[in-house]
């Protein structure tokens, strides 16, 4: 299981001498050396930093979404899709991620319904051409989710038709929310170069625009967003940071 694997990782690096500090990083100062990180009002100075703050899925903002999260509500089709084999699922969204999720889920689910607030998709044309050919996938245009219902697990959704203001219930076993992600990079604004969506800009694989600051995972990756790709970039960032520290020692 994931938590057990994480605990084994931690025990291994602790045996190698790594120190863990639990707390929330609230501010950074990368304008001068040494680099500085504020964790719960305590300042730490360092020669190198690896940013791995990840990204958070955008939520619909419903109370029922909170209550049923992990009980039929998912933000990752590739992570949880196999739990819904031969079941009826809904995908909320109309961008590339939502449509790619719908295509992926169609390989295992009994039916896939895409709920989109507009009357046309925002996904790129080549993906649209693929999804419209899959008979198992249907669309509810100009609809938004007002409520996800069920006692112990998802049993269905209540949708609002934006054109006639009517509400209607649809039964389903799972709801996949794909309305985007928010990178957890707020504390780096003004410190690191970010793109328009707030993801950290990367150069030379893992380097940022500030010397000695490296980045790994979803804080910089808005394309793949998978544990395996994050782990790979984490390894790259660690190797780059080690090489940088060795370079400083040799100066």
- Level-2 CATH architecture of the largest domain: 3-Layer(bba) Sandwich
Outline the biggest β-sheet.
Answer: 5 strands, parallel
Q: Taking strands numbered 1, 2, ... along the chain, how are they ordered across the largest sheet?
A: 6-13-7-8-9
- Number of DSSP E strands: 15
Verbal overview:
- This protein is of the alpha/beta class.
- The chain folds into two domains: 2-55 and 183-250, 3-Layer(bba) Sandwich (FAD/NAD(P)-binding domain), CATH 3.50.50; 59-177, FAD/NAD(P)-binding domain (3-Layer(bba) Sandwich), CATH 3.50.50.60.
- 25% of the residues lie in helices and 26% in strands.
- It contains six helices and 15 strands.
- A five-stranded parallel β-sheet has the order 6-13-7-8-9, covered by helices on one side.
- Strand 8, helix 5 and strand 9 (137-140) form a beta-alpha-beta unit.
- Helix 4 runs parallel beside helix 5.
- The longest helix has 24 residues, at 227-250.
